[in-house]
Amino acid sequence: MANKKSSRSKKAGLPPGSLVYVGEGQRHETIVSYCSFNEHSIERKELSSLDEACVAPKEGDVLWLDINGLQNIEVVEKIGKFFNLHSLVLEDILNTTKRPKFEDFGDYLFVILKVVHPISDGGRFVAEQVSIVLGKNFVLSFQEIDRHDAFASVRERLNSGRGRLRRMAADYLAYALLDSVVDGYFDALEVLGENLEQLEHEAITSASEETLTEIHHAKRQTLQFRRAVWPLREIMSGIIREECDLIAKSTMVYLRDVYDHVVEVIDVLEADRDIAAGLLEIYLSGISNRLNAVMKVLTVITTIFMPLTFIAGVYGMNFEYMPELTWRYGYPMVMAIMAVIGIGMALFFRRRHWL
Amino acid sequence: MANKKSSRSKKAGLPPGSLVYVGEGQRHETIVSYCSFNEHSIERKELSSLDEACVAPKEGDVLWLDINGLQNIEVVEKIGKFFNLHSLVLEDILNTTKRPKFEDFGDYLFVILKVVHPISDGGRFVAEQVSIVLGKNFVLSFQEIDRHDAFASVRERLNSGRGRLRRMAADYLAYALLDSVVDGYFDALEVLGENLEQLEHEAITSASEETLTEIHHAKRQTLQFRRAVWPLREIMSGIIREECDLIAKSTMVYLRDVYDHVVEVIDVLEADRDIAAGLLEIYLSGISNRLNAVMKVLTVITTIFMPLTFIAGVYGMNFEYMPELTWRYGYPMVMAIMAVIGIGMALFFRRRHWL
Amino acid sequence: MANKKSSRSKKAGLPPGSLVYVGEGQRHETIVSYCSFNEHSIERKELSSLDEACVAPKEGDVLWLDINGLQNIEVVEKIGKFFNLHSLVLEDILNTTKRPKFEDFGDYLFVILKVVHPISDGGRFVAEQVSIVLGKNFVLSFQEIDRHDAFASVRERLNSGRGRLRRMAADYLAYALLDSVVDGYFDALEVLGENLEQLEHEAITSASEETLTEIHHAKRQTLQFRRAVWPLREIMSGIIREECDLIAKSTMVYLRDVYDHVVEVIDVLEADRDIAAGLLEIYLSGISNRLNAVMKVLTVITTIFMPLTFIAGVYGMNFEYMPELTWRYGYPMVMAIMAVIGIGMALFFRRRHWL
Amino acid sequence: MANKKSSRSKKAGLPPGSLVYVGEGQRHETIVSYCSFNEHSIERKELSSLDEACVAPKEGDVLWLDINGLQNIEVVEKIGKFFNLHSLVLEDILNTTKRPKFEDFGDYLFVILKVVHPISDGGRFVAEQVSIVLGKNFVLSFQEIDRHDAFASVRERLNSGRGRLRRMAADYLAYALLDSVVDGYFDALEVLGENLEQLEHEAITSASEETLTEIHHAKRQTLQFRRAVWPLREIMSGIIREECDLIAKSTMVYLRDVYDHVVEVIDVLEADRDIAAGLLEIYLSGISNRLNAVMKVLTVITTIFMPLTFIAGVYGMNFEYMPELTWRYGYPMVMAIMAVIGIGMALFFRRRHWL
Amino acid sequence: MANKKSSRSKKAGLPPGSLVYVGEGQRHETIVSYCSFNEHSIERKELSSLDEACVAPKEGDVLWLDINGLQNIEVVEKIGKFFNLHSLVLEDILNTTKRPKFEDFGDYLFVILKVVHPISDGGRFVAEQVSIVLGKNFVLSFQEIDRHDAFASVRERLNSGRGRLRRMAADYLAYALLDSVVDGYFDALEVLGENLEQLEHEAITSASEETLTEIHHAKRQTLQFRRAVWPLREIMSGIIREECDLIAKSTMVYLRDVYDHVVEVIDVLEADRDIAAGLLEIYLSGISNRLNAVMKVLTVITTIFMPLTFIAGVYGMNFEYMPELTWRYGYPMVMAIMAVIGIGMALFFRRRHWL
Question: Are residues A320 and A221 in the same domain?
Fold first, then answer.
C-alpha cells in the first residue's frame, strides 16, 4: 500500500467537481468490457470506441460495463454523462485516494471499495480503488489499475452460466462484485498472517536491525489494511438497512452474508494488529536477553582472570625479601593455586547457569 | 486453537452457496445420533443410513438430530433439504471458520457457536464449531469434530430423565445445548487460569527464552478464546430480545441465565487478558533485575582487584632507587595493605547490598 | 480476593436449577436472624428451627430475615419455597461466584452484590457475595460468610430506633442494606489507597524482587475490586429507572444517592488502577537508575586504574636501556604523575556528577 | 489536591441524611455574605447573626447568600431549613468529597462543582468544593475553604454595576458564578502547562531520581484535575437540556457558552495528560541515553589501555632470551608503537562518534 | 502551533461578552476586503474606511466581507452591530483560542474553524482561527493572521468566473470557504507525513538526543493538528443534519462531500498519530541495539586481552626456579601461544557475529 497522500494535492485549489485523475498508476490503456446478459444468452466484448459503451441496456437484459484503468478521463466523463451520474460521483471515481463510502442517489447507488491484493515481494499489499454504480438494470464498475482484474471470478461465472448469477437482476450482480472483493481480503489476510508468523519467529530467534524495520513495516501494512476494510462494516450495514427499490428483498440475505464476512475480516485484522504490536515487545525482549548473555560472558571472563592476574602481579614484585620466590616449589605451587581458583570460578558460574 | 485462516481460501472464487467443507479436521466418520422423546418415552439410535435421518418428528415428540463430524457433505446436504434450510445456512454449517452468529429465518432459528475445550498438552485449546438449528418441534445440532461430544451431559440427562428436560419443548432442548456449551467455557477458563498462574510464577523466578515463547503463546490463546466467546454476548442478547413463536416465554428466563454466564466468562477472560499482558512486563522486569545482579558482580570484582593489581604493578617496576623494595618488611607490609583494601571494599559493597 | 474460578466447575454438567453451594467458605453454622418491626415495636431473635423462619410477616410490620452462611442448603431451599422464589434465584444465591446483577421478578426484586472487606494482612481483600430479595413487606438477605456481618450498622440503627429506618417500609430497609454495602467500599478503598501509596514509596526508594510481586498483587487486587463494583453502576441505574410498585417514589431519591456513591467509588478505583499501572513503570525506572549508578562506579574505577596500571607496567619492562629507571628521582616522579592522573580523573568524574 | 479518601470514613455507619462536615479544612470562621440587589440598588453586608441570613428575598430583588467555610454546621442547617432544602442536599453540601453533580428538585436546582486553584509551591493544586442552589429569586452558594473566594470577580462586578449582571434575574447570577468557576480552570491550566513544560525540559536534560517523583506527581495532579472537571461536561449538557422555569431562555445561550468552555478545558486536560504520560518515556529514554554514554566511556578506556598494558606485560616477562630487551632502541620503539596504537584507537572511536 | 493557553487568561474576570482580542498575533493592519457579485458582474475592493464595510448587500447580489487580522476590535464591533450579531459571537470571533464550533442563530449560521498551514522551518504548523458567518445573502469571514490568506483560491475563482461559484447563492460561497480550509489540511498532512517519515529514518539509523526532542515535538504537532480538526467532524455532521432555510438542498450534497474529506483527514491523522507513537519505540529499540553493539566490543576486547595479559604476568613473576624462562625458545613459544589464543578468540567471536 503505497502512501498516496502526496498525490492528493494535485487537486487543491481546483473548483469542486473538476475531473482530475488523482492516483499513482502510470498511464496504461483503459479497457472497457461490455457485458449484457439474461438467463439464456450473454454478449461480451471489449469495446474499442467510446460510443459503443454508451448504449442503453437491452430490454430484459442486465448490462455490466467494467472500466479497468482510470487514466483516460474522457471515458469516465462520457459514461458519466450517458448514465446521468452526479459530477461529484465522477470526481470520487477518479480520485483514488477516497475512503470507502456508500451513497444513495435515488436513481442509482454508489459504492467505493478498496481491493487489497498482495504483490510478489514478501508481505506487501496494493490497495486498489474500485467503484460500483448500481442502476435499475445496469452495473458500472471502475477499477483503478488495469494490470489486475478484481472481478475475474465473476466474469468467469457469468460466462459459464454456473450458479444463479445469470438468472438474477442487476442487484445480484452488484452483490457478486462486492462478494468477490471481500473474498479477496481473505487471500490477503493469509499472506499477511504468514508474514507476521515468520516475523515473530525471526524476532525470537535472530533479531537484527533489519527485523526492526520489517516489524515496523508489517505494523503499518496491518494498519493500512484495516483502514481499507474498516469503513466497509458501516457501509454494508448501511446498505442492509437501506430501503430502496434497486435492491430486491431476496438479495438482502446475501448482502447480510457479505456483512458477516466483513466482520470476520475485521476480527482477524484486529487480532493481526495485536500480533504486530506484540512483535516489537518480543524483539525488545530478545535484545535484552542477548544483552544479558553478553554481559554474563564479560563478567565471567573478568571474574576469572582478574584474581589470577593479580596473583601473577604479586609475584612479579621486586621486593628483596620474598621467601616464596626462592622456594623450589614456589612456581608450580602458585600455578596450581591459580588453576584451582580459575576452575573453581568456572564451576561456580556453571552452577549459576552463566556458562 | 489452530490458526484456520489458511483453510478459508479453499472457497475463494466459488459461487455463494457452494457446499464445501472448510476446516482442518481429518476425514473421520460422520455420526448421526437420532433422539426422539416426550415426557414418557425416549427413542435413541445411531443412524446407519441417511434416509433414516430424514423422518418428520413424531406428533407430540421432540426430535433431536446430532450430526458429529462434518466431512460427509452429503449428510448435511440431505438433512438441509429435508428440513428446508437456506443454502447459506448449510454453507455456514460446513464452513467452520465462521464467527459465532445468530439468525432468525422465520421457520427456524440458526446459531453458530464455538466450543472451547482444552487438549492434553499444557494450556492449549481447540475451538470447535457447533451449529444449532431450532425448528418448531425439532433441534438439529452439528459438531465439527467427531472425537469430542460437547453435548454428552445433555444426552445423559435426557436418558436418565433427570431434570425437566424431557417434559419441555424443543426450545428448552436448544437452551440446554447452549447452556452445556457455555458451561464448558468455565472448565476451559480454569485450565487457562492455572496456566497463566504457572507462567507468572516462572516469569518471576526463572525466565528463560522459552518462557518468552510460552508467554506469547498464552497471550494469543487468551485472545483467541476471547474472539470465540465475545460475539456470544451480542448473540444471546439478540435471542433474548427476539420476539418469535419458537421460544416460549418460560424459556426466556433460562436464556437470560445463559446470557449472565456469558457475561461472566467474558469478565474472567478480560481479567485473564490483563494478566497475560502483564506477564511480559514481569518477564522484562525479571531480565532487568538479573542484568543488574550480573553488573554488580562485575563491578564488585573489578573494583576490588583493580587497585590491588595496580599496587602489585607499582612494586613490579624496575627503578633502581625504590627504598621499599629493600626494606625487610616491605613485602608483608604491602600484602597487609592489599588485604585491608580488598576486605574494606568487600565490606563496603556488602553494606550497599551488592554482595 | 481469592480466585474462585476453580470452584465453579462443581456445577458443570448438572441440570440448571440444581441447588449446590459453590464457594470457598468452610462449613460453619448458618445463622438466621429474624427481625420484624414497625415504628413502635421491634422483635428480634436468632432462629433455632427452620420452621420459625417461615412465618408470614405480621400485618403492618416489615419482616427482615438475614441468613448468614450459605453452607446449609436446606435453609435456603425452605425459605425459597416459602417466599415462592424462582429456582434460578436460589441457585444464584448459593453460587457465590456470580457477577453482581439485578432482576425484577414482578412479586419481588432480586439483587446480587459483592461486599468487599479488607483482611488483616497487608492490603488483601475478601469479596463476599450478598443477595437481597425485596418483597412487598419483607426483605431477605443472604450473606456468604458467617464470620463477617456486612449489615451490623443497619441492625444497630434498627435497634436504637435512630433515623427514619423504623418508620419506613421494606423498600427503605433494602435501600439501607445497599447503602451499608456501598459505604463499606469506602473503607476498603482507604486500605487499598494506603497500600498503593506505600508500594509507590517502596518502588522509588528500595525496589527488590519482592516489591515486583507486591506491585503485581496490588494491580490484581485493584482489578478484582473493580470487577466487584463495576456492574453495580448499571444495576443501580437499572433500579432507578425501574418503574415498579415495590419501591416508593420517596425512596428513589435515596437510591439515586447510592448511585452517586457507586460512581464515586468507581472513580476512585479508576484512579487507583492508573496508580497501580504506574507502579511498574516507577519500579522499572528505579532499576534503570540503579543500573546506571552501578555502571558509573564500574566506569570510574576502570578509568582511574587502567592508565595507572599501564604506567606501572611500562616501568616494569625489562629493557636494558631505560634511562628513567636509573634516574635517582624516577620512582617518586612516576608516583607523582600517577597521583596527578588519578586525582585528576576523580575530579573530572566528580564534575560530571558520576561520583 | 490532597487525597481526601480517608476523611470520607467519618460518615460510615451513620444514617443517611446525618449532617457531618467531611473535609480537611481546619476550623475557621464561617463567613456569610448577604447581597440583595436589583438594577438600581444593591445592599451588601457580612452577617453576624444567623437569623439575619434567614430573610425572604425582597420583592423584585435577587438575593445572594454566600456561605464561605463549612465547619459551622448550624449555619448550613438553619439556611437549609429556611429555604426548605432536602436533607440529602445539605448532606452533599457538607460532604466535600462529592463528585460534581447536578440535580433538579423542582423548586430549586442544585449543583456541586470543584474550584481548582494553584497553591504557591510549584505546580500543586487545591480542589475546593463549591455548591450552588438556584431558587426562584435567590442563589445560595457554599464554599468549602474560607481563605479563598472563588466568586471575587462576580462580587466586584455586582458592586460596580458593570455588565448586565444587576439587570438580570437569579438564573443569570447563578450562570455568572458557574462562569467564574470555569474561568478559574484556565488559570490553573496555565500553571499546570508551565509545570509540565519545565518538567519536560528537566527530563530531557538532567534527569535525577527527584525528576521521576516530580513526573509522577504531575501525572497524578493532571488526573485529579481531570476528575474534578470531567463530570462538569455532562452536568452542563444536562442543565442545557433541562426544561424548567427557573432558567430563562435568554440565559441558555450563556450556559451553552460555559459548556463550550468546559469542553475546551477538558480538551487541554486530555492533551496535558498525554504530555504527562509522555514525560516518563522521555525520562526513560534519557536514562538509556546516559547509560549508553557511560558504557561508551568505559569501552573506549578499556579498549585503548588493555592492548597497551598487554604489550608492557610482554616486555616485563623475565625470559633470558628476548632480543628486543637488549636492543638499544627497544624501549623508545615500544613506546612509539604504544603511542601509535593508543592514538589510532582514539581516532577510530572519534570517527564512530564515541568520543 | 504555538501554545496559546497563556493568552487566554487576559479574559479571566471580565464580564461575559466583553470584546478583547485573545491571541498571539502582533498588531498588524486589519484588511477588510469587500466583494459583491452576481452571475454577471463582480465588484471587489479593499475598504479603507469602516463605514464602507457596513453597506447592505445589493439586491440580487451576494456580499462577501473578509476581515483579515483581528487586532482592530472596532472593525469587528462595527460589523457585528451592523449585521446584528450576538455579542457572544463577536467575543468568539476575537478569542482565537476557541475550539471549532457551529451554532445556528436563526438569522445566521456561525462556524469557527482552524486553518492549519505549515511554516517554513521543518514540520512546524500554525493553526489560525477562521470564523464564518452565513446570512441570507451575505457571508462574513474573519481570519486571525493577516500575513496568510486562507481563501486565496476562492477569491481567484470568483474573479475568473470559473466554476459555478458566481452563479450560486451565499450558502455555496460559504461551502467554498469551508472546502478551501479543508483542502488546506491535505497540504499540511503531506508536510506532516514527510516529516514523520524522515524522523523514522533518523530514528532507525542515527538517533541522537536531538532526535528524541524532534520525535516528541512531532507527536505533539500531530496531537494539536488532531485537536484542530477533530471537532470538525461533529460540526459538519451537525450542519448536514441541520434543517434551515439558509442552506439550499442542492448545496447539501457538496457539504456531505466536505464531511467525507474531514473524515479522510481524521483517518490519516489517526494513522500519523500511530506512526508518531511508534517513533519513540523505534528510537528506544535503536538505543538498545547500539548499547548491545557497544557491550559486544567491550566484551570482545576484554575477553581477548585478559588471558594474554595474564600469561604475560605469569612470565613476569620473579621465581628463581621457572624452567621456561631459561629455555632458549621460551619467548617465541609463549608469543606463539598468545597469538593462537588471541586469534582463536577473535574467530570465535566472529562466528557468533559479535565482530
Answer: no
